[in-house]
Amino acid sequence: MKPSPSQNTLNRMERETIVFWRRPHIVIPYALMEIAHLAVELFFKILAHKTVLLLTAISIGLAVYGYHAPGAHQEHVQTIEKHILWWSWWVLLGVLSSIGLGSGLHTFLIYLGPHIAAVTMAAYECQSLDFPQPPYPESIQCPSTKSSIAVTFWQIVAKVRVESLLWGAGTALGELPPYFMARAARISGQEPDDEEYREFLELMNADKESDADQKLSIVERAKSWVEHNIHRLGFPGILLFASIPNPLFDLAGITCGHFLVPFWSFFGATLIGKALVKMHVQMGFVILAFSDHHAENFVKILEKIPAVGPYIRQPISDLLEKQRKALHKTPGEHSEQSTSYLAWGLSLMVTFMILFFFLSIVNSLAKDYHKRLWERKRRQNKDLIDEENQSFEEEEEEAVTPPSSCPLLLSDGFEGVVVKK
After folding, report:
1. What is the spatial distance between Cα 185 and Cα 191, in angstroms, rounded to a whole number?
2. What's the sign of the alpha-carbon dihedral 35, 371, 358, 82?
3. Cis peptide bond prior to 137, omega within 30° of 0
4. HEC profile of 196-263
5. Keyword rRNA-binding, does the record have it (predicted)?
6. Integer Cα distance of 368 and 103 in angstroms
7. Which of 5, 167, 230, 404 could lock 237 by a disulfide, CB 3.0 to 4.6 Å apart?
8. Are 408 and 415 contacting, i.e. CB atoms less than 8 angstroms apart?
9. Would you state the pLDDT for residue 88?
10. Separation of alpha carbons 269 and 255, rounded Å
């Protein structure tokens, strides 16, 4: 006979069915209620720190006054505002790429990679990196005069380094939720609710068995190897796995949180690996791939593919030619807008990726609210059971215990007192 699952297991199995494409009538209200609860909790947490709240309000008031007050400083204010918004945008994209709340948004392929490629192609086409600002960095146009210095690989790296480093720092920030989740579960000793954390614990238990190599698949053995080396090597191991393209790095955060690795050891190694080492590798690869003549060579290679090669080559060539013409457009010049099938397909793919990412966030919020309801119900049942037990014990004491002072007439005529034992 198989043992019946626990209430926590049944609750978790029910929560896994709460997804938008299966139960939209439940997911949408649950997600909205979770947002409302998070907003209320944040409001009361802010009120709990009155001194910090007062200083923050004063700082915001002074910043708003300085932002709107007329004067010579407005030119510097606009410059600072532009840089802060631009830098914050790349940090946010990095966080979205790694945190995902269940499904990361591949912002490198959608935003950062195309930005580096556009700067690289423009540098070789314009023979300069002194793009007019504005419209750069929102859009790229060739300057009116060419630079006397030849464009090099390291000059392009320097041009896109800030955006790349900020994106890498955002990806490091996005790795913190698995770390804190596993750390909190280990300290509290509660049964984990996160699917990846439960998979990690099952993998640890299976790896201890004698026939683990036969039971585990290739992917599970790879995960076990990553977990073992991170736990054994510590900071160097985290730095190594953060510095290479590694889809299993979420396991590194869970491993470090489970084994209570210090925060700065985990975050420091992750930040150095992702923002400095890995980001320069990815940035260099994109620059080399889209540098002078490499794009044309790549198109020629695609043309050699049997059956489909000629059909692929023409749309890509048209897209590259359109990009070159846009670089030489003068400000205010109107250009004919035409969309190729390739550009339309890429836009459709990006739209689907963003939509799926948004739905994953909604599903995650709905599941969190379902868990909140379950925890509330469990606390109520526990309080009810405690009250019933307490009342039962009081009734039992009253039935068994005689009055504290009851005068009796003893056999020899003396008046005695029954003393409670």
Report:
1. 7
2. positive
3. yes
4. HHHHHHHHHHHHCCCCHHHHCCHHHHHHHHHHHHHHHHCHHHHHHHHCCCCCCHHHHHHHHHHCCCCH
5. no
6. 15
7. 230
8. yes
9. 92
10. 14
